[in-house]
Amino acid sequence: LRTAPYAISFLHVGAATFYDVGTVYTDFDDAQLYQTVGLGLRALMPQFNRVVYRFDVGVPVDGSGFVVRIGAETGQAVPITRSEDQLYEFSVGGLSNQP
After folding, report:
1. Is 22 among the domain residues?
2. Distance from the CA of 72 to the CA of which of 29, 34, 41, 46 falls in 20 to 30 A?
């Protein structure tokens, strides 16, 4: 789940909650799924590019600790309005259910 963006000068910021599950294994029989829940902040500067900067804090469901992840992602839906997309040559945001 994510919030609607808040425009602060040239910066769009928002928040997200997430649930993640996954694993890494060398033998399928030894695979064990790990689950995490967390909160994240999202920042976007549409004047410069369409890269969403993310800061996520996750807590494993089994209570074994926490992780912090900072990254730049471009393959996720970003809350950019259609009118902003019209400033550029192609649509990368502007989800149909957003103003």
Report:
1. yes
2. 34
